[in-house]
Every structure is written in C-alpha cells, then in structure tokens.
Amino acid sequence: MSIRSTELNPRVRRMIAEQDARRKAVPVPAMTVLIVLPLPGKYLWPNSPTCPQAKRREVAEYRGRARDHVLRLMGYAQRLQGWAAATAQATFYFRTKRMRDPDNCLAALKPVWDGLQEAGLLVNDKDMTHLPVIRRVDRDNPRVEIRVWPTEGAAT
C-alpha cells in the first residue's frame, strides 16, 4: 500500500508513461496522484452478499486508507489541494484471469472517491470523470492502482 505523486518522482512518471504507451492508454499529465491500494473487500462489490454491518466497516476502512494516503502525500506537496474537477483511471490487478464487470470494479471504488474528498484533494467527488477500468492479472501482488489528475478549470 503506497501513494506517490509522479510530480515528485520523475522516474515513476517515466515508468507509468512507458506502461501507458504499451497499453495504449490515456497519457498521464504532469500533475498526477498515483494511489496503490489492496483490492476492495468482498462487501464493497455491488453483487456481494448483503451484511450491512460488514459493508459499513469495509467502506469506512477503505475510505480511511485512501484519505490517509492522500493526507500523507499532501504533507509533501501542498499544491495538491482543492481540485474543482478531476479525472481518474483505475487499473485492477487480480490474482486470476476470471472476467469481472468493469462497472462493478468502478462501483467498488466509491469509498476511495469519498476519501479523496475528505482529504481535501477534491472539492466534490461528483465532478470526477472516470475513464474505463483496466483489468490485468498479477498473481503475486493483487491490487488496484488509481491515477487522479486535475482537469481543465480545476482550482489548484
């Protein structure tokens, strides 16, 4: 679990740009926040079994992880506060090749968007543009990588 600003580390920015070129994904802007979290828990997925207490607990934990990582990052780069609008792209690395619905993947990240707003990175998470989810396989390190960057008209 880590969060890095590609603005602070040019080597990481180059590595991400090379990966995106291979994947033919959207190019990463200069001011990008990279959040790496474990995969969402089973109760965060839309088609999961219902247990309200467990879901509340997982939502609070996942939101807190995202918020804490962004707050830690903002301690290093104060310019990352208050984006009026942002764009996000999530890359899921699953342990198996089993097909998962991209809409469900995006829905499982709702606590992350709330955590970004609580941390002050976003003014309001309703102004977030979500790019299509990328799904990959990594048997050794299942995770989700979320790239967030401000869009036109965003306050910095």
Give structural notes.
- The chain is of the alpha/beta class.
- It has a single domain, classed as 60s Ribosomal Protein L30, Chain: A.
- It is about 35% helix and about 20% strand.
- The chain contains 4 helices and 6 strands; from the N terminus they run E-H-E-H-E-H-H-E-E-E.
- Strands 1, 2, 3, 4, 5 and 6 form a 6-stranded mixed sheet that branches.
- Helix 2 crosses helix 4.
- The chain is globular and about 40 Å long.
- The two termini are about 25 Å apart.
- The N terminus is likely disordered.
Question: What's the number of domains?
Answer: 1
Q: Tell me the CATH topology.
A: 60s Ribosomal Protein L30, Chain: A
Please state the average pLDDT score.
81
Task: Supply the CATH architecture.
Answer: 2-Layer Sandwich
User: How is the quaternary structure best described?
Assistant: single chain
Task: Tell me the structural class.
Answer: alpha/beta
Number of helices: 4
What is the CATH level 1 assignment?
Answer: Alpha Beta
Q: CATH H-level name... which superfamily?
A: Holliday junction resolvase RusA
Poorly predicted sequence stretches spanning 5 or more consecutive residues: 1-8
How much of the sequence lies in strands comes to: 15-25%
Q: In angstroms, what separates the terminal alpha carbons?
A: 26 Å
- Tertiary shape: globular
Please outline the major beta sheet. Answer: 6 strands, mixed
What is the string of helix and strand elements?
A: EHEHEHHEEE
Q: What is Rg?
A: 15 Å
Number of strands: 6
Helix content: 25-40%
